[in-house]
Design goal:
Shape: globular
CATH superfamily of one domain: Ribonuclease Inhibitor
CATH class of one domain: Alpha Beta
Strand content: 5-15%
Structural class: alpha/beta
Helix content: 40-55%
Distance between the termini: 68 Å
Protein name: RNI-like superfamily protein
Organism: Sorghum bicolor (Sorghum)
Radius of gyration: 31 Å
Length: 563
């Protein structure tokens, strides 16, 4: 009797019935490949409303022998329909979702004829969508528990769209691995997706070969895709056809090297040029002739484009023998009225190209917020500009510099010093591990100290500067900067002594990192004085400064005296 009392309670009749309906829908979907009914629902990847509809031509058993999702959606009340949805794998849920959508639309038309208020109709539809969204979210987290999709999204997340977008990305990544093999010589669309991926969406091991092909998956779920990452091996005319139903907003290309790959990428870009907002190239060979072709795919000369974020990383964009620069790239930058972010990181850029890019941006009407031209061979190019050219640049720089809020450059201290004097709203500056000289940093700090709009965050970490920057750094601390990272810059005991003695009486700092500077007891004395003069101070990192035991008493006394 005791053993019987510990057994789980018997399932209710309703639960058994829902399990049976779910099992039948799963079985029918696996055999039919996701068909939803006798006629299929409008819209989806073959239509225009964004819902991935399926049709009966996918195959499967005779129509009269199947349990059609629309019959279930019409026969069950919404409460039971939601409980049934939680029992279904993604493809079966997809079919039920469209059937419920059709019922919802039909109900809206009916209630409109009966004279119900718009708010009542919207409330009914919104409730259904919210419940199904929760089911899609659970399926997403179950399949990809480490993915943080939606965590930083302040708006409503379409988990159905996120699920199928991530699914198709997995299919494409797997197809790329197969296409990389030397033995591969077929069509990419005919590649079969692994049983593991197919089982995750069908919950069945007997999925047909036709439904396991990449071409079929793209045709069914491509309409959900807004963001894609494509290896160069997938960039061809066939893939462009497979992805025509996508409404791409963000696109990343990796390792585009050969001419066929370039042509395939250009086909994709020209097809999705109207919807693309973000474009990124990583480890690609983007010589000027190639860059010209890519830029022409996005916009013709004299016309504008809608790209907001443009990034090239670890890819060569110019030829050095002889020096050749892409005119298409410069035209692209000049016509980018919507361009907010430009990143040309580690592109083997020479100083002449950097100068042309800055000139182009200054002359353009873009509202650029973030500019990164780091890890390039451009040291000293600004010093070559004569005064007349610098003055002409200054006349055109007001709009450009007023929009810029994040600047990530390397070995361009003169440009930074010049630009920040233009009353720009630059809020954060990071020049870490840039092999900066003490003279350049002193020049920078002097400029930052006198600007009308003070900097919020500055990081000069991991540059061997020595104690010579201490006086300028102390003066800068009085400029209302709120966070400073000066770790491992070689201050030493002398540098901390200068900082302590020259520290302004009022400091607005909230956070400071002065670790790894071998300051000894002088580091403790500086921290002690800073605590007394920075009422908003929240955190201090003074680790790895060889602090002696008596440092604790020095700092604690300041904490006791502080408010």
């Amino acid at each position: 009797m005791e053993e019987l009392s510990k057994k789980a309670p018997a399932p209710s009749l309703l639960s058994l019935c829902l399990d049976a309906v779910a099992a039948r829908l799963i079985s029918d979907n696996a055999r039919a490949g996701g068909g939803v009914g006798r006629t299929g629902w409008p819209g989806g990847c073959g239509g225009g409303d964004g819902l991935g509809g399926f049709s009966e031509d996918d195959g499967g058993e005779a129509d009269e022998d199947r349990l059609h999702p629309e019959e279930v959606a019409e026969g069950l009340p919404w409460e039971l329909l939601h409980r049934l949805a939680s029992r279904l794998p993604p493809v079966a849920l997809e079919s039920l979702h469209h059937a419920a959508h059709a019922r919802c639309c039909s109900s809206a038309k009916t209630t409109s004829g009966l004279g119900l208020q718009d708010g009542d109709r919207r409330g009914m539809k919104r409730s259904r969508c919210e419940d199904f969204s929760t089911t899609w979210q659970l399926l997403f987290k179950l399949r990809w528990p480490l993915d943080n999709a939606g965590h930083n999204n302040l708006g409503t997340v379409d988990w159905q769209q996120k699920y199928w977008e991530k699914h198709l990305q997995e299919c494409l990544d797997e197809a790329a691995e197969s296409a990389f093999l030397p033995s591969f010589c077929g069509n990419i669309g005919e590649l079969s997706i692994s049983a593991k991926i197919m089982n995750s969406i069908y919950q069945s091991i007997d999925t047909s070969q036709h439904h396991s092909r990449l071409e079929y998956q793209c045709s069914k779920f491509g309409c959900y895709v807004r963001c894609l990452r494509l290896q160069g091996v997938l960039c061809n005319a066939e893939t462009s056809d497979l992805l025509q139903q996508c409404k791409l907003e963000r696109l990343m290309f990796i390792r585009i090297i050969s001419d066929p790959e370039v042509n395939g990428a250009c086909l994709l870009l020209s097809w999705h040029a109207e919807t693309l907002l973000s474009l990124e190239f990583i480890h690609c060979q983007l010589y000027p002739t190639i860059m010209d072709k890519i830029c022409r795919s996005l916009c013709q000369e004299g016309s504008s484009h809608g790209i907001q974020r443009f990034s090239i990383k670890s890819s060569q964009i110019c030829e050095t023998k002889p020096l050749t620069i892409s005119s298409g790239l410069l035209n692209f930058l000049s016509s980018g009225k919507s361009l907010h972010l430009l990143s040309l990181n580690d592109t083997k850029m020479q100083s002449s190209l950097a100068q042309m890019i800055i000139h182009t941006l200054l002359e353009s009407s873009c509202d650029l917020h973030t500019l990164e031209i780091s890890e390039n061979n451009i040291a000293g190019w600004l010093s070559k500009l004569n005064k007349s050219s610098t003055n002409s640049l200054a006349l055109r720089s007001d709009i450009f510099m007023n929009s810029l809020s994040i600047l990530n450059l390397r070995s361009m201290i003169p440009f930074i010093s010049w630009s920040i004097q233009k009353e720009n709203p630059l809020l954060r500056l990071t020049v870490e591990n840039c092999e900066l000289s003490s003279i350049g940093v002193i020049m920078l700090l002097e400029c930052l100290t006198t600007v009308k709009q003070p900097l919020d965050v500055l990081s000069i970490a991991d540059n061997h500067l020595g104690s010579s920057v201490a006086a300028a750094l102390a003066k800068f601390l009085g400029s209302h900067v709120r966070a400073l990272n000066a770790t491992d810059i070689g201050l030493g005991t002398l540098g901390f002594q200068i900082l302590e003695e020259a520290l302004p009486t009022e400091v607005a700092l909230s956070h400071i990192n002065i670790s790894k500077n071998r300051g000894g007891i002088r580091a403790a004395y500086f921290v002690s004085r800073l605590i007394g003069r920075a009422p908003n101070l929240v955190s201090v990192n003074a680790a790895a400064n060889l602090l002696p035991p008596e440092s604790l008493e020095v700092i604690c006394n300041s904490l006791k005296q502080g408010t």
